[in-house]
Amino acid sequence: MPETILVTGGAGYVGSHVAVALVRAGYAPVVLDNYANSTPAVLPRLRALAGYAVPAVQADVRDAEALRTVFRDYPIAAVIHCAGLKAVGESEVRPLAYYDVNVGGAIVLAQVMGEAGVAGLVFSSSASVYGEPDALPIAEDAPLRPHSVYGRTKRVVEDFLCDLARANANWRIALLRYFNPAGADPSGLLGEAARGRPNNLVPLLGKIAAGELADLTVHGGDWPTADGTGVRDYLHVQDLAEGHVAALRYLAGARGALPINLGAGRGHSVLEIVAAFERACGRRIAKTIARRRPGDVAACYADATRAAQLLQWRTTRDLDAICADAWRWQQGGGRY
Ligand code: UD1
């Protein structure tokens, strides 16, 4: 019998790719989502990729009764917790919503997991917990100084989960700190369906190349980097999803709570991403170099050693694959 894994936020950008990676690895995902920033239209796509109708429950992670029902209805062996609010800019103007959903949701989920006797948890954290790094690449023991409300909610949940694991040795928790996930399923069936204008660089490039948005505004050409533009650690969302499966396998023989970076372990500048996207789509992308964006850092990329050693995981898809798959998704409309 395949193990049943609950994926909260399973209809979202990362969660949907995680659900597919789980099926491919021989697990049976159950998707839970309130569709606040996603849509049930992802479900037929999941069905097409999985080869069967992946069970899906519409519920909010803060709804303890709804979660109890899921744990009663399915033999959940572990949870991958992707549900949450993730727009950095919005978090500054809606802190209550971000603490409520991200922190409140994690507390309710942990309560219900405790009642159900389920101790394995993979948590979607973020490299934004680091803020401005003292040194590069960034290892997991680097200081945590998040710049945004969003990043602080992730740090609070990490602290909470570490406290749980210290108090009760049964917990097995992986805190996955994502760097910059991008790209889409190569089928073109799953991708990032941003509501309104995308915040992140790669989906923006897709919309610009498709003529839906005007020129790219490059946020700063005077950073202390090789070409003056910001450097980030982009990883293919399929690699990221496989990292969750690797974390799940690792947890089967682990105890406690541990942060693990998921990144490629190297950085690319904005101009390098633009060039890669131009190669993928065969079009020129007009750009204007403008002022730095408040809150940005010059460079941010992972020391991915821990993931390699403990999870036997590393990224296998390069920048060209990221851009080719993002472009395919965009050409299919870039939405569900
Ligand atoms: C952002 C979030 C981070 C989150 C991550 C993944 C901020 C400050 N950080 O990271 O917390 O985990 O997304 O969702 O928002 N860029 C441009 N022009 C644009 C857009 C982006 O030049 O129009 C540049 C940025 O300055 C940066 C790079 O592209 O150098 C990547 O930006 P983005 O995709 O927004 O990701 P991050 O800022 O790294």
Q: Spans of 5+ residues with little confidence (pLDDT < 50)?
A: none
Specify the biggest β-sheet.
7 strands, parallel
Which hetero compounds are present in the coordinates?
uridine-diphosphate-N-acetylglucosamine
Strand content: 15-25%
If you compute it from the alpha carbons, what radius of gyration comes out, rounded to the nearest whole angstrom?
A: 19 Å
- Give the integer mean of the pLDDT values: 97
List the secondary-structure elements in sequence, H or E.
EHEHEHEHHEHEEHEEEHEEHEEHH
How many strand elements?
14
Total DSSP helices: 11
N- to C-terminal distance? 32 Å
Q: By CATH's scheme, which homologous superfamily of the domain at 4-183 and 234-263 applies?
A: NAD(P)-binding Rossmann-like Domain
Structural class: alpha/beta
Order of adjacent strands in the largest pleated sheet? 3-2-1-4-5-6-11
What does this protein structure show overall?
With 336 residues, this protein is of the alpha/beta class. It has a domain of 210 residues: NAD(P)-binding Rossmann-like Domain (Rossmann fold, 3-Layer(aba) Sandwich), CATH 3.40.50. Helices cover 40% and strands 18% of the residues. Strands 3-2-1-4-5-6-11 form a seven-stranded parallel beta sheet, with helices on both faces. A three-stranded mixed beta sheet has the order 12-9-14. The protein has a two-stranded parallel ribbon with strand order 7-10. Strand 1, helix 1 and strand 2 form a beta-alpha-beta unit. Helix 9 crosses helix 11. The radius of gyration is 19 Å and the shape is globular. Bound molecules: uridine-diphosphate-N-acetylglucosamine. Uridine-diphosphate-N-acetylglucosamine binds next to helix 6, helix 7 and strand 8.
